Amino acid sequence: MRGADQYYGINDGLGAVFGTVSGMAGYTVGSEIVLITCLSATVSTAVGGLISALPFFFSRGIPTVIWAPALSILAHFGVGLPKSLVTTRPWWISGLEMTLVTVIAGALTYGLAVAIH
């Protein structure tokens, strides 16, 4: 992995955590809530990144490029399932919502990378 790739990955993770924590800091006055939110966002970002990167530890080439997004899409579907507990939507619609967001974000990111490269 090139240094720039690692830099952008770290930058993305820090940006996501900072955005979450900043939002919570503006919403609440309790510093313990902000700390818990920061830790939660950090752990969830790390786990999410690890799920997408897992195939690269065990494989190379085209199979890896197929497995990485497939695992990410499945993980996002799984994350969407519990949303149905707090909404009135069926579980499969909540899962598909997260899946659709993932596919769109992945396609845009891939397209931009191809265009820039």
Describe this structure in words.
This protein has 117 residues and is mostly helical. The protein folds into two domains: 1-58, no CATH class; 60-117, no CATH class. It contains four helices and no strands. The two termini are 16 Å apart.
Quick recap:
The protein has 117 residues and is mostly helical. Helix content is 84%, strand content 0%.
Primary descriptors:
single chain, 117 residues, mainly alpha, 4 helices, 84% helix, 0% strand, globular
Overall pLDDT score: 77
Number of domains: 2
Number of helices: 4
**How many E-type strands?**
0
What is the share of helical residues?
over 70%
Tell me the β content.
under 5%
* Rough outline: globular
Measured distance between first and last alpha carbons:
16 Å
Which secondary structure elements does this structure contain, and how are they paired or packed?
Layout: H1 3-27, H2 31-58, H3 62-80, H4 91-116
